[in-house]
Design a protein that fits this description.
The protein has 103 residues and is an alpha+beta fold. It contains four helices and two strands, in the order H-E-E-H-H-H. It is globular, with a radius of gyration of 17 Å.
């Protein structure tokens, strides 16, 4: 339980970033932990964070129309990233077990 309550306060500090999404100026307020993950995803895609967010917004608009709550979409994108990390970690552990059994 302490790993939840004793986390660094900066992680849940709200941070507002003023950015351009597909040419429109806007501001997005998220907790620092989410910004950290979004920055990591963007870097992995070879983009700056505003460019990544613009791409994400464009894709959502094409697929489903205007999102009801873009910041909620961003938080859920972070959860997907964490789930994918967990999936990859699990696959790696299973592959390591198979190699160990074969040796």
């Amino acid at each position: 339980m302490r790993s939840f309550s004793r986390q660094d306060r900066r992680r849940y500090q709200p941070v507002t970033r003023k950015i351009r999404l597909n040419g429109q100026s806007t501001s997005i307020r998220l907790e620092q932990a989410f910004w950290d993950i979004l920055d990591e995803i963007a870097a992995g895609e070879g983009q700056a964070t505003p460019a990544f967010l613009s791409t994400l917004q464009s894709e959502v608009l094409m697929l489903d129309g205007e999102p009801v709550n873009f910041t909620s979409l961003l938080r859920c994108a972070c959860l997907v990233q964490l789930e994918l990390r967990g999936t990859n970690a699990q696959a790696f552990r299973e592959a390591a077990r198979q190699v160990a059994r074969a040796a």
